[in-house]
């Protein structure tokens, strides 16, 4: 675990201890509203003493003792939700993420609507390298609403790290830009911003030492871009490119920033410069297509999208881009072919079904258009119920 995440987790641990201190001193605390009997039985009295001692040990920083006491208390009352939560936090704090994951699962068996527990489970799963389960559980946490701002930011950061490692750089960059606006100069966010901008699919703690200075410098530019005037960011990128003119990914990063601020002509030039360095940069090809479509020149985008498809024939994004470009040209036959493939590759993406419905309408295939519109509506409704972490 890197230092910033460790500090945040330690802070959350302290918060958790304070939150349960009062409640857990009563027999049945955290048991879903169980009432204290008039005369406590021997097991209940023992549970009360163990839970009180566990919290006191936790507050005093005696984590080994606290864990032992919590576990003894949980043997008596296995449905003590706060107990499992504190065990999970203590184990995560000592970087026993497998044990923490198990504890948070026990808590969620008791209270499946505890969004903070889902978020803490995500952190444990991420540290174990379980990226796909972590991303799915993060969606559950965000759908429920994470009340603690620090934990919400930490969960968003982990979502971005997962997306970076999966090669979903634009989505990761969107999440990190939100964090950049509230966490100025956070070194972890800076490094992640650099990875996303340069399209490097690795975790921050696995960055080779010789690449770290460039990644951090790009991340600092991206971080500043969330607050600084556009011209200052442009000047910083120009200065960096004067030092590193042939570095793969750097022209793409600058071009992507320029596209975001709608300086499209300069963005096109930077993307073309990127292709001179790396002709197989699929993201640069897609950006060239997208910008041309935005500028009302879809015909100029076709060669870039076609090359992207040839380089990445199993990628949803390449078929979607080419299909939408043909739709803009009025070529319903080619649009349908590419968009059908996009929907096949990623059937849960609402955007693909919307585009396909439009292409079917263009071809006067009304029943097919209606079917895709219904799928689109259904998927959008699911997104409202279970939003992605953006």
Largest sheet: none
Compute the number of helices.
20
Rounded Rg: 25 Å
Mean pLDDT: 88
CATH class of the domain at 1-141: Mainly Alpha
The level of helicity is over 70%
Distance between the termini: 23 Å
Strand content is under 5%
Counted beta strands: 0
Shape: globular
CATH architecture of the domain at 1-141: Alpha Horseshoe
H-E string:
HHHHHHHHHHHHHHHHHHHH
Low-confidence stretches: 6-37
**Structural category:** mainly alpha
Oligomer: single chain
| CATH superfamily (homologous) name of the domain at 1-141 | Tetratricopeptide repeat domain
CATH topology of the domain at 1-141: Serine Threonine Protein Phosphatase 5, Tetratricopeptide repeat
Q: Can you put this structure into words, describing what you see?
A:
This protein is an all-alpha fold and 390 residues long. It has a domain at 1-141: Serine Threonine Protein Phosphatase 5, Tetratricopeptide repeat (Alpha Horseshoe), CATH 1.25.40. It is built from 20 helices and no strands. The chain has helices at 3-24, 42-59, 63-76, 81-93, 97-110, 115-127, 131-144, 149-165, 169-180, 187-198, 212-225, 230-243, 250-260, 264-277, 282-294, 298-311, 316-328, 332-345, 350-362, 366-385. Helix 2 (42-59) runs antiparallel to helix 3, helix 10 packs across helix 11 (212-225) and helix 15 runs parallel beside helix 17 (316-328). The longest helix is centred in the N-terminal third of the chain and has 22 residues, at 3-24. The chain starts with a helix and ends in a 5-residue tail after the last helix. Mean pLDDT is 88; it is low at 6-37.
């Amino acid at each position: 675990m890197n230092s910033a995440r460790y500090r945040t987790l330690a802070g959350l641990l302290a918060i958790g201890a304070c939150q349960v201190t009062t409640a857990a001193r009563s027999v049945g605390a955290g048991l879903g509203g169980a009432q204290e009997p008039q005369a406590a039985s021997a097991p209940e009295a023992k549970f009360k003493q163990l839970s009180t001692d566990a919290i006191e040990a936790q507050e005093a920083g005696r984590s080994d003792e606290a864990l032992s006491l919590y576990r003894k208390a949980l043997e008596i009352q296995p449905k003590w939700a706060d107990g499992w939560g504190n065990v999970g936090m203590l184990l995560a704090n000592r970087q026993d993420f497998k044990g923490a994951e198990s504890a948070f699962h026990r808590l969620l068996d008791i209270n499946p609507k505890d969004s903070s527990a889902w978020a803490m489970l995500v952190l444990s799963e991420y540290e174990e390298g379980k990226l796909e389960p972590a991303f799915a559980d993060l969606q559950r946490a965000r759908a429920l609403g994470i009340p603690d701002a620090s934990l919400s930011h930490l969960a968003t950061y982990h979502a971005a790290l997962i997306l970076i490692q999966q090669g979903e750089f634009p989505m990761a960059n969107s999440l990190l830009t939100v964090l950049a606006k509230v966490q100025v100069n956070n070194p972890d966010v800076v490094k992640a911003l650099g990875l996303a901008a340069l399209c490097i699919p690795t975790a921050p703690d696995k960055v080779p030492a010789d690449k770290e200075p460039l990644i951090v410098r790009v991340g600092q530019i991206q971080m500043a871009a969330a607050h600084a005037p556009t011209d200052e960011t442009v000047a910083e990128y120009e200065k960096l490119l004067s030092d590193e003119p042939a570095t793969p990914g750097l022209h793409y990063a600058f071009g992507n920033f320029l596209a975001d601020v709608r300086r499209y002509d300069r963005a096109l030039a930077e993307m073309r410069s990127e292709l001179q360095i790396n002709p197989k940069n699929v993201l640069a090809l897609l950006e060239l297509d997208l910008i041309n479509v935005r500028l009302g020149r879809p015909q100029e985008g076709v060669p870039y999208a076609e090359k992207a498809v040839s380089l990445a024939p199993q990628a949803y994004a390449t078929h979607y881009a080419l299909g939408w470009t043909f739709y803009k040209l009025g070529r319903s036959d080619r649009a349908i072919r590419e968009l059908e493939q996009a929907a096949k590759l990623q059937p849960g993406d609402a955007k693909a079904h919307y585009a396909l419905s439009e292409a079917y309408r263009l071809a006067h295939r009304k029943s097919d258009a209606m079917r895709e519109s219904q799928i689109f509506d259904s998927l959008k409704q699911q997104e409202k119920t279970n939003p992605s972490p953006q």
